[in-house]
Amino acid sequence: MTPDNYSQNIVNIHHEKKNQINVDIKKTVVGFILFFITFVILIPVILFKSQIYGILEAYMPNIDLIATVISWHGGPLKVWEHLYPPTPVTMYGFSSQTIINYMALLGLTYIITRETQRSGSMARGWSMAFIMLLMTYLLPGQFISWIMDKTNDLISNYFKFNFISSESIVVIMGFFIVATIIASEAYILHNFKKNLELMAKKIMTIPNLLKKII
């Protein structure tokens, strides 16, 4: 890797792209506030008051996936255009993405800590991270964006709708994918807790086994 490759951090990229990408700062801030009120406060409150705790538990760490979907479309008046870019090229997109990732990870770590305290078992709490980190944080985001891109290409090339745009159809599909991921995560955590805990306990014994061998 050359020294030039090392210089491609977000600060340098932002300065390189700032004359090419027009960012409306006020619109970007309004978009983030709308996202926060709607998806971080309002929907969780509705789920909590409806006592849908299983879905709420899986929902909170997945707000980054919701941000992925609405950023793809840009939202009304493109207020979410720079909310959660797959690859940030501006400081605004990077800052927004970082805050959303931080909130998602706070939700995830809270659930793990609460489960550990409630069960009195470190293995029980840690085991939830096996599923949640993969399904929430590490795997889906880039794949969702890719699927939405490919689906939009397919629809726009082969289908024409007078009453709805191809982008709107793709966004609906994106929300369906996110809902499926959240529901699947809730199902796995509810039905396979003992299996995951057993796996975690076995992994936690590895350091002691290594000490005996060494």
From TrEMBL:
<feature type="transmembrane region" description="Helical">
    <location>
        <begin position="94"/>
        <end position="113"/>
    </location>
</feature>
<protein>
    <submittedName>
        <fullName>Uncharacterized protein</fullName>
    </submittedName>
</protein>
<keyword id="KW-0812">Transmembrane</keyword>
<keyword id="KW-1133">Transmembrane helix</keyword>
<feature type="transmembrane region" description="Helical">
    <location>
        <begin position="125"/>
        <end position="148"/>
    </location>
</feature>
<keyword id="KW-0472">Membrane</keyword>
<feature type="transmembrane region" description="Helical">
    <location>
        <begin position="29"/>
        <end position="48"/>
    </location>
</feature>
<feature type="transmembrane region" description="Helical">
    <location>
        <begin position="168"/>
        <end position="189"/>
    </location>
</feature>
